Fold these 2 entries.
Entry 1:
Amino acid sequence: MSNVKLAIIFYSMSGTNYQLAKWAKEGAEAQGAEVKVLKVEELAPQSAIEENEAWKATVEATSDVPVATSDDIEWADALIFSTPTRFGNLPSQMKQFLDMQGALWATGKTVNKVVSGMSSAQNPHGGQEATILSLYTSMMHWGAIIAAPGYSDGSIFAAGGNPYGTTVTVDQDGNMTEDAEEAVKHQAKRTVSVAEGVKNI
Ligand SMILES: Cc1cc2nc3c(=O)[nH]c(=O)nc-3n(C[C@H](O)[C@H](O)[C@H](O)COP(=O)(O)O)c2cc1C
């Protein structure tokens, strides 16, 4: 049993990052962590969602998932963010969530959170690493401890070999083209293990 509390925070328009978040939950729970899966608040107008069947389906599929708050960040020892690429960057929904944590940051409550990132894009080189780096830049400002997977497990190679964090490519039909489940679970376990060490310093 671990004494680590992990918040997995995602944004997803067509379900990919929600799936990555659910795999991460399985991996972290297998490591004994207490886990919350949370979504960031949707900012897009309802009319835009209504025009897109996949988006509408994801909003419905995640309707029971709680929206992440500052209290969740404060609660957690470790954070895993899962986010699609938007023009090689974080979606505004995820950025807005990070930008709403100013009060937490100003009171030192983001320091020493152990953080890891996952991402997806439509193209194999569509900006997955850049998106994770954007996240990690903010995390450095938070004083968080970044637990990138590196090449710490063979499953990472099966998922495309991204040492920044697990990333996937999503085809036109919305399917992931990599076999990423084990890499995600490994990343989650590793994040929990690093957080255990940090917590017990
Ligand atoms: C506005 C917008 C910008 C996007 N920019 C990129 C991009 O720069 N590169 C890319 O490969 N895919 C891009 N995509 C595709 C998304 O990254 C892809 O649909 C997403 O990773 C799927 O994740 P999800 O199912 O969790 O929403 C973009 C999609 C949208 C809607």
Entry 2:
Amino acid sequence: MDEPLRHHGDAEVRAGMADFAVNVYDGPRPPWLDTALQAGLDAAGRYPSAATAEAALAARHGRAPGDVLATAGAAEAFWLVARLRAWSRPVVVHPQFTEPHAALEQAGHRVTEVVLPEPFVLDPGAVPDDADLVVIGNPTNPTGVLHPRATIEALLRDGRVVVVDEAFMDAVPGEPETLTAHRHPGLVVTRSLTKHWGIPGVRAGYLLAEPALVADLRTGQVPWSVSSSASAAMVACCSREAAAESDRRAEQIVAWRRELQESLSTMGIHHLPSQASFVLARVGEGVHGALRDAGVAVRRADTFPGLDATWVRIAVRPPARTRSLLDALSALSLDALG
Ligand SMILES: Cc1ncc(COP(=O)(O)O)c(C=O)c1O
């Protein structure tokens, strides 16, 4: 592994392995989403426009169309932010998804890391006053911590851009801490359709911000970067039917996660009280590799600043599927005992 910050869960899964490394919802795509994706493909003979998708997303979040920029996954948003300005003191709050940090470095910036200690709860006072950019995830990957909206709002100030990565917010029932409706000249909220709708290959995401900031970010975007299928998926996922299915999935993730966490507790494995579709567990050094040898992929955590090789991130799956992971973990502890 050359670049730890560019390492992601998908690199951990080989054919035939049980996948607990990639955090996408473990269930079939809704038929209406397949219909939309097909319609997007049918439109592939023309250059795409994301205008309709942006209007639908704006309506969904109670915002104006000028407040939305559709992106090729949330990942594109991080690259746009990295190239937006000559940041003097960009700060990334870790442990968190490392792509925003990598994008900033790629754009030539020196990143200041604010590394939160366990239990990884945001302390706004830990962010340097002179930070002109702050990036934070909510709920945070890989810790599963859901920061209160008010705590993140405390980071906002004149002359600073605060990026809140809400890629996993739709896994939180009711989304009580979302900042999508909050208006502030320096606030950028990024969202993703990848996880909740199980479409990493489509590359569908967006950001919400004040119109002036959206316009500046749009300037840096590669023309036509959002495909017709991604736009069609965005429109479809704004429907009432989608909202109901989204809520159902969020509740299901809570139930699946509870079962996983109860089993980990029974096995005496330390883990965090996650609010997302994954759980960060301290299984001990060497367990990641041993699980891998047993055909079970969990996400290594030592590539996240602030964590080490004793931690792994486990994707929440239906209990019947989770069994294979728990059985493999039990077999390892038996081996250790025997
Ligand atoms: C916290 C977080 N944000 C953003 C992304 C990027 O998502 P997308 O597929 O929308 O680019 C990921 C992907 O793993 C993620 O974990």
